[in-house]
Amino acid sequence: MALIALASGVASLALRDPATAQLEQEAVRLSALLEAARAEARAAGVPVRWQLTEPDASAGSQGAHGFRFVGLQGDAARPMGWLHEGVSAQVVGAAAVQLGPEPIIAAQRIVLRLDDRQVVLATDGLAPFSIADAPPAQP
């Protein structure tokens, strides 16, 4: 019996929390989208920003917060929402994330939240956006 209890305990610790996995998936996806838009901004030589959008009032309760890229051609083909319901984001210290056209941008942070969990995406302005180790300082 003790062996079964021990095995059950270890197995439960090995299982990942679904909300944490969903949030990490959103962070990796957003990082890739930001870096693709950043590369396009540099290639086209146009200023591009990523900003959060409000829910569509006409959608009623089905409306959800999303995001959009401003300044790039072909905006209709780009993702404009989260993969998982309940995800929200906050750009720390700004209304939007500036992505280019300069090769070096300002240091920026985005906090993604799902339920009581959060993940921070950050760049120092030169490196790509990636999951940061520490939460951002409160302004």
Give a summary of the structure in a few sentences.
The chain has helices spanning 2-14, 18-44, and strands at residues 48-53, 66-70, 88-91, 96-100, 108-114, 117-123, 130-131. By secondary structure, it is α+β, with helices and mostly antiparallel strands.
Set out the fold topology.
Blueprint: H1 2-14, H2 18-44, E1 48-53, E2 66-70, E3 88-91, E4 96-100, E5 108-114, E6 117-123, E7 130-131
Q: What report would you give on this structure?
A:
The chain contains two helices and seven strands. The protein is an alpha+beta fold and 139 residues long. It has one domain: 3-Layer(bab) Sandwich (minor pseudopilin epsh fold), CATH 3.55.40. A hairpin with a 2-residue loop joins strand 5 and strand 6.
Please supply descriptive tags for the structure shown above.
2 helices; alpha+beta; elongated; 3-stranded antiparallel beta sheet; 7 strands; 4-stranded antiparallel beta sheet; minor pseudopilin epsh fold; 139 residues
For the biggest β-sheet, the strand order reads: 3-5-6-7
Report the C-alpha radius of gyration, rounded: 18 Å
Question: What is the averaged pLDDT score?
Answer: 85
β content, as a range? Answer: 25-35%
DSSP helical segment count: 2
Alpha-carbon distance between the two ends: 53 Å
Low-confidence parts, pLDDT < 50 over ≥5 residues?
A: 59-63
CATH fold description? minor pseudopilin epsh fold
Assigned CATH class? Alpha Beta
Named at the architecture level, the CATH assignment is 3-Layer(bab) Sandwich
Considering the protein shown, what is the CATH homologous superfamily? Answer: minor pseudopilin epsh domain
Q: Could you state the order of secondary-structure elements as H and E?
A: HHEEEEEEE
Q: Indicate the structural class.
A: alpha+beta
The total domain count is 1
**Shape verdict:** elongated
Helix content: 25-40%
Biggest beta sheet summary: 4 strands, antiparallel
How many runs of DSSP E, i.e. beta strands? 7
